[in-house]
Amino acid sequence: MKKNNGIQILIMTFWVTLSAVLQTISLTSFSIPGGIYPSGITGLSRFFSDVLRDFFSISLPFEVPYFLINAILAVFVYRHIGKLFTIFSLLQTALTSLFSPFIPQIITLEEMMLVAIFGGLVNGAGVGFALSHGASSGGMDFLSIYFSNKYHRSMWNMTFGLNCILIGATGLLYGWERAAYSIVFQFMSNFMINKMHKRYTHQAIIVVTRKPDEVIETVLKNVRHGITKISAQGAYKGEDESVLYTVVNTFQTSEVVRYVLEADPNAFIETRDTASIYGNYYQKPLD
Question: Is domain 202-274 classified as CATH 3.20.20.70?
Fold first, then answer.
């Protein structure tokens, strides 16, 4: 194994482990004590385990269906979202299953709204750390990444919509107050994920410059995205200029701006959020 690959593995292992610890704390300190169901496979597994216990007197730790469902989904998406990504996502789910019986409740809150809010934020941070470092927390993340790769846009809000089915079942069986707090928990978790994970959000960068060739050469040398060059003329002085247009992932914006200013310190730069893109857009594949 190359040295750089070894360092990458160590870094990913650290962040995946931290992700699993945070997700476990979210479960043991917020979700389980508050009777709140998280989103995705974690919530579905807990719901399934609770239904078996409460209505059929069958004891099945939620860690069992949690890991089995994740393993099945990993097999389904393995060829589409990257070998290393899938392996470390399974490691994250395995660590969460392993840590859950051993990490006690370390945070106690009496107010249920605070339990839902802070529990969701901690859970979202755990998922966000995994996603931002080449892995995920498995489950619905696998499907979200798969469809995000396919359509080049974030699918986390779609995931939140699908979780409403789980919320409906929770309300019918355990009461709508618990369902309402579960919605708050999931919303805060989804909010944190969207703030931390920028792989499938995009920004357009518009550059007005008198050194277009230098800017293009510098940017293309470092970032694999196309650039459109448009001839223009300054309205005030009537001097010839060029307008350069490109779309990049949000996390690349500051990097591209830095390269532009290296080539032309006097360039005028505008960035704007892009709702969606169509056509040929290069998305760096997951490992």
Answer: no
